Amino acid sequence: MNKIKDSFLIQDLENLSGIKAHTIRIWEKRYALLTPTRLNRNIRKYSLLDLQKLLNVSVLYNNGFKISKLSELSDKELFDEARTVSTVDISSNYFVNSLILTMYSFDSLSFEKTCQELSSKMSFKELFIDVYIPLLHHIGVLWQTDAIKPAHEHFISNLIVQKIVLNTATIKTIPIKTDETYVLFLPEGELHSLGLLFLNYCLKLKGENTVYLGGGLPFLNLDTINAKFDKIHWVCFFIIDKTSEEKLEFLGKFNKLLQGTKGSCSIIGHIWKDIANSNDLIKLYPSFKNLPFF
Fold it and tell me: Cα separation of 94 and 86, whole Å?
């Protein structure tokens, strides 16, 4: 059984804070910035409090503060100063760091408190783009370095999903702009629906008619939807890579689905960047931000 990670090696701190391990060692020796437990002469073990302190230091250091001055501040003073910097500049990674800490400690109350604070400063769409997306990107890096366990990722992702669902439910019904219906789905084998769920929120916010089908949908099921609406804009998203043959086969299936209809299609994912597509009704986009209707 995987033990939840509550102690860290210096490589973990480097991955999480962006501060090089060599620099962390210098700061420890010169300024006594952190006080790790030594497993032996060469290996140090850091606590969650050490991580929190270093994350706050990294925010301030990247905003022009000198490490000699930061080393003189108490943990509370570091926290307050990092918070002040991020209040002035919302693009600061302080809030991302705060949510990373809630992930490691499985603290849903702190997650809620941070999100409520952010909601008073920005719209939910801005919150997702400026905070949640950088957070999820950072989590992807942590996966690669084995700094987190599946329980961590599931915990934070499901909290974000709850926020999307909640905000979608609060959208007031407004007149639909066109007769076009956006049908959003993940193809068979794809289950990471968080981004697609957010896109559904954005489209509803604009007054578009949407049908959200979720993840892992067999392609044959699209025929049923195709028969129900006069004009469909299909939207699907890929993370898992496919062979060139599989991608061309998927495009062929969609080309056949669109024949004799007023439909069109947007396919999203970096995996499509090297695929040539000559069908004007099917558009390939590397990310959600490239979508003309985002």
Answer: 6
CATH numbers and ranges of domains, the chain:
7-168 (1.10.1660.10), 181-290 (3.40.50.280)
Q: pLDDT tens for residues 149-199?
A: 788 888 999 999 999 999 999 998 776 667 899 999 999 888 788 999 999
Q: Which amino acid is at 158?
A: N
Q: How far apart are CA 150 and CA 152, in angstroms?
A: 5
Strand, helix or coil for residue 104: helix
Give the C-alpha separation, 268 to 286, whole Å: 6
Q: Are 179 and 230 in contact (CB under 8 A)?
A: yes
Cα distance between residue 42 and residue 34, in whole Å: 16
- Cα distances (Å, whole numbers) of residue 4 to 45, 48, 268: 15, 12, 34
Averaged pLDDT for residues 110-120: 92
Give residue 87's pLDDT: 56
Q: Report the b/e string of 15-39 with b at 16+ CB within 10 A.
A: bbbebeeeebeebbeeeebbebeee
133-144 and 94-105 helices cross at what angle (nearest 10)? 60
**146-182 as b/e: b if 16+ CB within 10 A:** ebbeeebbebbbebbeebbeebbeeeeeeeeeeebbb
Contacts of residue 247, defined as CB under 8 A and 6 or more positions apart, other chains included, come to: 271, 272, 275
Strands 209-217, 232-237: pairing kind? unpaired
Cα of 138 vs its chain's centroid, Å: 8
